[in-house]
Amino acid sequence: MMNIFVALKKALTPSPPESLPEGAVFIDVRSPVEFTGGSISGAVNIPVNQIQLITAHKPAIHKQQPIVVFCASGMRSGVARRQLISMGYETVINGGGVSQLAMRLAQPRS
Fold first, then answer.
1. What is the CATH code for 4-104?
2. Cα separation of 102 and 78, whole Å?
3. Among 79, 7, 69, 72, which Cα is nearest to 37's?
């Protein structure tokens, strides 16, 4: 029997670096205050508790478009990833924490 904490950690663990697809939309699921403190260049801010509002985003984010969600540590983005997949988005990657993702992308936080 798998320990619930092990299962939760496995479900919320960020994807490996090699799995970031070309042309992905980057969604910062932190709060607006956290977002204004610095994020990935070009990222969209949709807080995790409002992720269902992605359908109202302009320009539209299509369900076939790859999405990389990220937050401060990877926990909130794991929750957002599961919700987006349940909404029919096909390729949703947990990019983990913003600082680690910025290093993976070799870009400073903006």
1. 3.40.250.10
2. 17
3. 72
